[in-house]
């Protein structure tokens, strides 16, 4: 959905634009010499180097290593597609909204690379013995950090500013939707062991909250990427405000119930990490049950804050059709 952003107003318009509000010259090799083009080349090179270093020594054993390798390969592939579209001037033929897609991907890629830059060294690299494999893994982590900074810089450069014609995903609420869905995915990864919640209906409710809010936020993102916000039976701004309010209420219950039933002995919780047998020893590629419970509690708080910020910003925005 194309929008013009002012201080408190988002005005729907049909005015054409080169997308992203960047000075990049599209449909020409000169696009690579512009700041945004050079930044995307840095993203392409850093992710390529990261997965190449790891692949050359087969240093991605286990689920955490697989996640990191997937992150770098996925970011490299989509960045390459974006560069090809920009160079060939194929934005009009791209199946998704070009006003929304690049910044949505850049935000996801920044979060993906950030997670890989943290997870890979803490759950894999530190358990490697000194040698060529460890050196390659450390270097890959370094380039992953560079990629993270590069993608975050693109988000900062191309986000919506007052007076610009842009897509909803470039606004603060749009970027918060990306954060909300990403954090939910990390939560799902930590609760993949059903033993963490199946013994208590309250914990099962928390899992339902994570799933419901994720689906609603994902729908909002897909509607914008597909430019089909008009299919909703209610105005899109009302849908966004209602979604944010519902998510805040649901996550507030999860923030209370998850720590209560996971860490309070009165409700069958485990208050101390030392009592968890699975945490008694350090294991490569593995996160023990107590650490998973704590991570989910922290991520629940982070997502609640994100939804509160989303609600505040959505309430302040006014959409006016022209």
UniProtKB/TrEMBL annotation:
It is a multi-pass membrane protein. The chain crosses the membrane at residues 38-61, 67-89, 101-124, 136-153, 165-190, 202-226, 238-261, 294-312. One of its GO terms (biological process) is membrane raft organization. It is found in: Membrane. GO terms for cellular component: cell-cell junction; cortical actin cytoskeleton; membrane raft; plasma membrane; ruffle. Signal peptide: none annotated. The keyword Hydrolase does not apply. Keywords: Membrane, Repeat, Transmembrane, Transmembrane helix. Pfam families: MARVEL (PF01284). PROSITE patterns: MARVEL. Residues 31-163, 168-319 form the MARVEL domain. Belongs to the MAL family. PANTHER family: MYELOID-ASSOCIATED DIFFERENTIATION MARKER (PTHR17068:SF3), MYELOID-ASSOCIATED DIFFERENTIATION MARKER MYADM FAMILY MEMBER (PTHR17068). This is Myeloid associated differentiation marker. It comes from Mandrillus leucophaeus. The gene is MYADM.
